Structure formats: C-alpha cells, structure tokens
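Memo to structure team: turn this sequence into structure tokens by end of day. - J.P.
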Amino acid sequence: MFVNAEPPVLVKLTPPKPPASIYMPGEISFLGQNRPAVSIDRDGAEKLVREAADRHHVDPALVRAVIETESNWNPSARSHKGAMGLMQLIPTTAQRFGVNDAFNPKQNVDAGVRYLKTLLERYNGNLDLALAAYNAGEGAVDRAHGVPSYRETRNYVQRVQDAYFRPGSGRTGDAYNRANRIHREVEATGRIIFTND
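Reply from structure team:
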C-alpha cells in the first residue's frame, strides 16, 4: 500500500538553557560583566569617601571603617552572597539607591554612604543598630529589636567599631550630622528656647 504523504519532519528537542545568572535581568548590570577591570588607588578611593561623606553628612572615618571591614579597599571585591565593590552593596540595595554599576567606585561609595546615613537616621544615630542593619538587613534588626544574635553580624559590628574608634582614624565625633538637630538655648533672662537653627 502506498500513501501520498510528506515524510515526517524530525525536530531536535534541546533542553532549555539554565539562566545565566541568579539575578533578575535588571540586576545583571550590577555584576560588572564585560567591562574593564576596575582600577582605583587608595588616594582616589579616599577622595571619593571624603566627597560622599561631605555630601551626605556622614563621618568619613565611619565610611573608611565600613570599607575596610567590607572589602579591605578592593573595588572589585565580590562576596559569596553577591555583595559587590568597595562598600559591598547587594543588588537590591544598589537598585534602591540608583546604582547602574556596583563596581564603579564612585557609584558604589555614594550609594553605600547614602544607605549608611539612611540607617543612622532610621535608628536615631544608634551606631550598633545601623551597622547591624548594614550587615544583616533592616528586617533582621527590627525583628530582633536590636543587634541580631548572628555571630557574623555581632563580629561585623565590633570590627567596624574597632576601626572607627581606633586612635588616628580621623573620627570627627559623631557618626553623622543631623540636619534638623534640636538645640537648647538659655537666654540671659533665664528663658529656655529649643530651636533647630
């Protein structure tokens, strides 16, 4: 018997490719792929720290202590948890602060300092809580109602503070300057005035 039909077409089935990254497409740019190696010396990084600290009213010595603890001044540092650059920004934090390239030292330091200031403001200048949140996240600090009991976080807070309070760190006295700090003034007549000027 003969049948007038087209021969069957063989279709080669290939398994789907696994995703190239665990990050969402919008986060891939944070990985610094297909870009030249980052090159910045300590003086260049120090200049970025001073500029960002001045711009955001954070003590530059605190920023230095965080960078020293996070990346040891390595702009190409990448942690096993996906944190990147000098201040070890995770992709969600980088996105939150408008970073396009987390390995770009200027973007990284500026966003890291803004995040640090946000945490200092959130926790009313409590350095322990701000640093714990920088390391473990705001949610972990809020759930613990203080520094979480994670060994890594407790060690982190101690290491940053050791670097910050070390003699010669250049510490200016307060972790950040509150723009609207309230001052108490006593006039010659004895009248007490509270002002934020």
